[in-house]
Amino acid sequence: xxxxxxxxxxxxxxxxxxxxxxxxxxxxxxxxxxxxxxxxxxxxxxxxxxxxxxxxxxxxxxxxxxxxxxxxxxxxxxxxxxxxxxxxxxxxxxxxxxxxxxxxxxxxxxxxxxxxxxxxxxxxxxxxxxxxxxxxxxxxxxxxxxxxxxxxxxxxxxxxxxxxxxxxxxxxxxxxxxxxxxxxxxxxxxxxxxxxxxxxxxxxxxxxxxxxxxxxxxxxxxxxxxxxxxxxxxxxxxxxxxxxxxxxxxxxxxxxxxxxxxxxxxxxxxxxxxxxxxxxxxxxxxxxxxxxxxxxxxxxxxxxxxxxxxxxxxxxxxxxxxxxxxxxxxxxxx
Length: 334
Fold this sequence. Notes:
Radius of gyration: 20 Å
Structural class: alpha+beta
Mean pLDDT: 91
Low-confidence stretches: 1-10
């Protein structure tokens, strides 16, 4: 586990001090939280022997989905915390390598301004407790903690996520224009991530919000439908494996066409109206995206095969996400 007084070598990543953590935890008042969280101590609230069950499921490849769901929803243990800390898909672990590669390479790729916090186990457990079980007093404390620790500014819009989950499909949570309530945004995002089997992170991420300069229509509760690329690379061989559209027509129409809610039906129509423009823009910028990714690969200090997501905004190209290739969607379209 990371020492609570140790700062990351990445200037934009940090770990709260023991003093800041203890001061916050001592003030928590929600009955369920006071039973579960004390400085330096996590009580079990779900009653499961998580480490033992995880150990058994790891020997059963056919139970990978159940294992993922268990890890997402269970209380933290020291072993689970360490597992999440070592997750190569967490932005905390890969972002320094991407920023360094962009800085030293001859490339036009950009990276959004980013701050990432690795939560101590007590606060990582706090955002795993259901939002409705948290008293407003405790929400207010966490809001102030997040605002101060991240050095947020009023009247500023941010893009926020956990280390591994962006909540893009509930974009009203990912786009935060109320920085003094950001702690509650993080609670809601992580609760939802846990519900869908993606609660595998102990990191919180605050990024600059890249305003859409193209005036694209929106889907998923406010997300601009911009052209995005998913690039698959082999970092050991410095090779580009292939590129696919992030908003691939086959995938998007299959996902949206069967939606029953009115909002999803509207998203489907919006996508159909934008489909040809997205395809044309993808083809127009494909060569440039390949060229820019190839330019940073020799300087990208990562090992293995990854997906790298690139977002177009006007004439700018932003690297916005990265994950292990075998954990990434859309590989079947290569």
